[in-house]
Each structure stands twice: as structure tokens, then as C-alpha cells.
Amino acid sequence: MDHIAVLALYDRDMREGAQPDGPGARIERAGRVVRQVASAEGWNGVVWSDLDEASADAAIAEQIAHYSGLDREFEWKLYGHDLPVDLGKRLRTAGFAPEPEETLMIGEVADLTLDGDPPEGVRFLPVTDRAGVDLVADVHEKAFGTDSSRLRHQLLARLTDDPDTVVAVVALAGDTPVSAARMELVPGTRFAGLWGGGTVEAWRGRGIYRALVAHRARAAVSRGYRYLQVDASSQSRPILERLGFQPLTTTTPYVYVP
Question: Residue of 175, 177, 211, 225 with fewest CB within 10 Å of its CB?
């Protein structure tokens, strides 16, 4: 993989040329910043910027004013190669709080290991309706210890209004949901994103996460996508590397609460 070329393609298609991530959201291009504006239940934030030392502070202040006027908490999604080099420090000075750093990993589907199957006694159930979304939300809360109301709203909205842009699956041990994940498809690009892969603690270490990655990768291949993208935690990065994913840069969410 040509890392520089793929990262440039990712920046162009997925960030500068971003598309709304669900019904009711819109992409706005404000000077040298690309941002998404959604309802309070959706994701609000900056996905791309082209700033320098002279323009950064004013652009940051403008985004704060814009989202504060909407009474929206928002995220500035900062990548390791974004400029200026001290943009993270400038965001902290302006009142943003950084969340844990993740690694942007890309896998070319033709080069990935896609033979992972769920362990014995575990089956994968496609998520297509509210009942399935409830199962995904239940797993999300148990696996990550966070509220799943935003995920519930966004996933149900996409399945209802734009089902061709999302693939969601829950892993069941008998009738008990033990893991879940989704894949977001971006029409007109070569990238599909893997999101929300989580397994409840008692079922970790059995190969379910790996099998869910392989399951979604096969779905991406069948739909003609060339690359899979993951914002990987330190826990998932080693698994993804064994499957053939490669790190390109880091990404850190900076969150601002009005």
C-alpha cells in the first residue's frame, strides 16, 4: 500500500469531500473548515480543516461561536498530520477537551485475511429493525460502559431512511447478545468504515471481534469497496494488524461543550 497516496485519497474523499453521516445531518463548508451539523442526537463536528498559524485561532473561534449558537456540543476530529502542528494545543487553549487518541488504520480488502468465523455456539444476526438496534445498543452499553441513546437514534434512522449505507450485525450466544458492530458505506468513494465493534467482557478473547471484522469486510467486497477504515483503539489495533490493516496516522477527538 502506498501510505501517502491512500492517506491523501482518504483526506479528499472522506474529510474534505465528507458526506452527511445520516438522515437530518448536513455538511457545511465554512472557509477552510468542513463541518457536520446535525440534531442534538446526531454527531456534530469538524471533519477537515486547511489551516495555518495565521488562520487557526480565528477558525477555532468561529466554530465555537457557530455550534454554541445552535446549543450543540461538538467535536473537532484532529488527525496527526493536520496543520498547524500545534493545532491540538490551540484547541485545548480554546476550551476543548481531548479524548483518547486512536489510530487511523486502512486495509485494502484484496489483501485482508477474511477467513475468521465466530466461535462455536455464537451466531451472527443481521440488524434490520428496531429490535436488532436494541440488541446492538444493549451490547454497546455493556461493552463500553457508555450511554447508547445517540447510537440507537442514528442507527435506527439510517436503517429506516438509508439502509444501503449501513451494515449492522449482532453476535448471539444462544439468545444473549455478546458482541456487535456496524459498517458505514460512503457512496461514490472507495472507503467503508468499521465502527462500534465491541464485545461484553465475559466473551472477549474468543475471536468474535476478528470474526466480525471479517464478516463486514466480505460485505464490503460484495458491494465493490476497495478500502476499509477503522479508528482503532490500542486494544483492537493488534488484531487489525494481524488481519492486514496498516496504520496511517492518529486521530484524536477534541470535544467542546458550550
Answer: 175
How many residues are there in the chain? Answer: 258
Taking the alpha carbons of 131, 42, 236, 246 in that order, is the dihedral positive or negative? Answer: positive
Assess contact for 255 and 96: CB atoms under 8 A. Answer: yes
Cell (9 digits) for 139: 451490547
Q: pLDDT digits over 194-230, tens only? A: 998 899 999 999 999 989 999 999 999 999 999 999 9
Q: Count Cβ atoms below 10 Å from residue 141 Cβ, excluding itself.
A: 17
Residues 88, 93, 96, 100, Cα dihedral to 10°: 40
Mean pLDDT of 116-126: 91
Burial 150-188 (b: 16+ CB within 10 A, else e): bbbbbbbbbbeeeeebbbbbbbbbeeebbbbbbbbbbee
Determine phi and psi for 236, rounding to 5 degrees.
-85, -20
